[in-house]
Amino acid sequence: MKISTKGRYALTIMIDIAKGNGEYVSLKTIAEDENISLKYLEKIMTNLKKNNLVTSSTGHTGGYKLNKEPKDYKIGEIIKAADENLDVVTCLKDKNCNKINNCKLNSISVPKKACRRNMAFFPRL
Fold it and tell me: Measured between alpha carbons, how far is 50 from 30 in angstroms, rounded to an integer?
């Protein structure tokens, strides 16, 4: 699976926040430490917060912290929250895939026309 830039940055953000040991971590600090645009990180953080992976606080000592223990997060949930898409094959998006009769997934006993339904487990990585 190829992870997008947003996905990689989301993982980086979550690791940096986890290193804060339960304290709020400034997004500006993460942007400076990782040499990533603050504006770009803000967009990613919006998705992470919307998906309830982090909580935020404003003010001088504000920032972001994890909503649960680092060990309780799954990489897939972080990437999905950032990207909102973990489709590893295009047929997961295309309900009318024109390659269903020649699908390589058939070689692993995935029934034709059930490909999308059976591949739905990928977002739970």
Answer: 19
The pTM assigned to this predicted structure is 0.68
| Spans of the chain below 50 pLDDT | 106-125
Q: Tell me what pLDDT residue 12 has.
A: 93
The tokens for 19 are 């290193």
Name the phi and psi angles at 12, rounded to 5.
-60, -45
Give the pLDDT of residue 84.
64
